[in-house]
Amino acid sequence: MPDQPVPVPVERLRLDMPPAHTDPAEERAYRKERLAGALRLFARLGYEDGVAGHVTARDPEYDDCYWVNPFGRAFAPLGPEDLLLVDGDGRVLRGERRVNQLAFAVHAAVHRARPDAVAVVRAQAPYGRALAALGELLAPVTHEACAFYEDHALLDEYAGAEDGARIARALGPYKALVLRNHGLLTVGGSVDAAAWWFVAAERAAQVQLIARAAGKPVLIDHHSAVATRERFGGDLAAWVSYQPLWQTVADMASTS
After folding, report:
1. N or C end of the chain: which has fewer CB within 10 A?
2. What's the superkingdom here (predicted)?
């Protein structure tokens, strides 16, 4: 008779965690790699519309400087070498292409207002835009949507790209913002977290709109929604949740 299987000790089981960097150059390379990967992922998910949509990552060494995708370039082929380093006034410091200065000004304002935010995402996704057209917040209609319960805001007035400071104030301390008549904006303590919050908010908006079209959604009660957010609404949970998506774009890059 074969030996009965026994549990593997927990300490021997692998669990991927965010890396810690002590060298700014290594941290910069890591953030650029993740930023380029997030853009390629967003291309696959359809979060791209013409020249609109940006993901920015704070440089780990240079104050008020951020890495961003270049103006007029499709997301799908972008690699770390294609990214631009841009200062808070919109001047390109490294790179060979132009930056969308109007759109970037919103990112710079959010980064300045939120020094805890490594990354800011503002992309074009259909369900977030539809929810924004209704001027509504994400409702706690699913377990996943509870990650945003009382941790996102609505800017309930039309704001253009020149209104970066107003957008940053509306975001406040939260992880996400619904920009009325525009769409979604998310931030995170890592590129992975900010990207995951955008994907998660877009999916939550999709379910909310489908449920409303089918009938009257039943909301999760306040106590349960808060408890769920406290457990699954942090940036570490977002980073972990993002890893399967990251693996898909990383695997594609390695085989191309």
Report:
1. N
2. Bacteria
